[in-house]
Amino acid sequence: MSETLLHRPASQDAEVLSSPDVAVHRAAPLARLAFRGDAVAAGKAGAAFGASLPMTPLASNAVGERAALWLGPDEWLLLAAADCAGDDAATVDAAARTRAASLAGDLSAALDRVPHALVDVSERNLALIVEGPRAADLLNTQVFLDLDPAAFPVGQVTRTLFTKAEIVLWRTAPERFVIEVWRSFVPYVDELLRESARGL
Q1: What torsion, rounded to 10 degrees, do the Cα atoms 105, 111, 112, 117 define?
Q2: Which of 31, 113, 125, 129 could form an SS bridge with 80, CB 3.0 to 4.6 Å?
Q3: Residues 86-111 pLDDT 10s
């Protein structure tokens, strides 16, 4: 799987920490949709979204600037980059909200009369990019999963805990992870990452 094109550092106050072995940045805003439905609904949703929804547990499917992340037997997180040429935070945020509304409309039209649930969660989450040779080591100070590439390969995604904060953890490259976390928990996660990095 090639590295996703979705996540890029936000232009303002993006750096959480930086060292020769690991760096953490806040990602620019994305359109985010929480989707639930059966296999028929998932097939129609994937066709309308432009990236099929993976049916295999813990899998992801990234196509260009869109991705579908498996969260449960009938639940996915759909991500799409904002359609925006600029780097201004407010402009990108507005573009992400517009993209989410547009995608929700496309999906709802494609799923007419097909039971499903679709919720725009763009404002709920932020993403953190953790990358570098010691990215897995840093995450393992707070995430109690085996992040060896053989156990958690590129493309794998799971819900888990970052100490006390619920996150979605996605490996997008051998030395790159993305943390999806509720916006209200970001300062808590940021500070724990900084503190843990000092101990590496």
Answers
A1: -80
A2: 31
A3: 566 677 778 888 889 999 999 999 99
Q: CA quadruple 29, 119, 33, 163: dihedral positive or negative?
A: positive
Interatomic CA distance for residues 104 and 48, integer angstroms: 10
CA 130 remoteness from chain centre:
12
Tokens of 110: 């494609």
Residue position matching structure tokens 């053989």: 150
Q: Are 85 and 93 in contact (CB under 8 A)?
A: no
Q: Tell me the average pLDDT across 22-28.
A: 93
| Interhelix angle 89-110/39-49, nearest 10 degrees | 130
Kind plus residue range of the DSSP H or E element containing 40? helix 39-49
8 Å CB contact between 76 and 53 = yes
- Tokens, residue 8: 């890029």
CA distances from 9 to 49, 58, 71, 91, 200 (A): 24, 25, 24, 15, 23
Residue 63 burial by CB count (10 A; 0-12/13-18/19+): exposed, middle or buried?
middle
Can you give the pTM of this predicted structure? 0.91
